[in-house]
Design goal:
The chain is mainly α. The chain has a single domain, classed as Four Helix Bundle (Hemerythrin (Met), subunit A). Helices cover about 65% and strands about 5% of the residues. It contains nine helices and four strands; from the N terminus they run αααααααβαββαβ. The strands form two sheets. A two-stranded antiparallel ribbon has the order 1-4. A two-stranded antiparallel sheet has the order 2-3. Helix 4 packs antiparallel against helix 5, helix 6 runs parallel beside helix 8 and helix 7 packs parallel to helix 9. The chain is globular and about 60 Å long. The protein starts with a helix and ends with a strand.
Length: about 240
């Protein structure tokens, strides 16, 4: 039985791409990878830093109930978006881009615009078993969205230029979800205060069981479906 890797046809790379990959493989030393980072790569990593700090701020809020931690967690993904925009400008300014930078960008986006918004949903009150299924689906759809984007970019011939639209919602659009959560926090519509809008419904079993779900969890489900949609076309700015 062959594995997926052995059964998949390898992607042909240009000489420039192979040269870029060899510079990471052929360099010795404990910090050789860091030395090979470009300025745009460091800016991209700052996007991941913002997402990671948002996750930890959410955890601090769960431990302390200090609302300042929650507002910090809500603000940091926006800071991550600023770095996400900036890294492309720096790469064009420096006239340097790399396959490593593309992978860093996707990984940082997954943290800032996938994991962090999902955890924020949990923090404000989406904590039932089915709620976490919606949140997990949201993260996984974001992961699939980024993987498809990377594969699509690699398949577009350079002479054709960039595509004029996104297939499905780009994952940074999840800041719209973060904005909704921020509004709920301002109104006090969160766990421990007035509770989430719409309350819960029980699909099976008893209250507090695995069949209970918050109605607003559907928002995360719809967003996840929009990210992996093949038919939804979103014009690029």
């Amino acid at each position: 039985m062959t594995s997926r890797k052995s059964a998949t046809k390898p992607v042909q790379m240009s000489d420039d791409q192979q040269h870029v990959l060899h510079q990471y493989q052929d360099t010795d030393g404990h910090f050789s990878l860091v030395r090979n980072f470009r300025l745009a790569d460091l800016v991209t990593i700052m996007n991941g830093v913002c997402g990671s700090l948002s996750v930890f701020s959410s955890a601090h809020y769960l431990l302390t109930k200090d609302i300042d931690y929650l507002w910090t967690a809500l603000t940091l993904p926006l800071a991550g978006l600023m770095f996400d925009f900036l890294d492309g400008k720096v790469a064009r300014w420096r006239k340097s881009s790399s396959l490593l930078g593309q992978e860093l960008d996707s990984l940082a986006d997954l943290i800032s615009f996938g994991v962090a918004p999902a955890l924020l949903g949990f923090v404000v009150g989406l904590r039932t078993y089915l709620d976490t299924v919606f949140l997990t689906g949201f993260i996984c759809c974001g992961l699939a969205r980024l993987a498809r984007f990377n594969a699509t970019v690699a398949l577009i011939p350079k002479e054709k230029g960039k595509a004029k639209y996104f297939e499905g919602l780009p994952i940074p659009s999840s800041l719209g979800l973060v904005g909704i959560l921020a509004y709920w926090v301002k109104k006090g519509w969160i766990e421990g205060q007035q509770g989430l809008p719409g309350g819960t419904v029980i699909l099976w079993g008893e209250a507090g069981g695995r069949g209970e779900v918050h109605i607003v969890s559907v928002i995360y489900g719809a967003w996840a479906a929009a990210m992996v949609s093949k038919t939804l076309k979103v014009p690029k700015p």
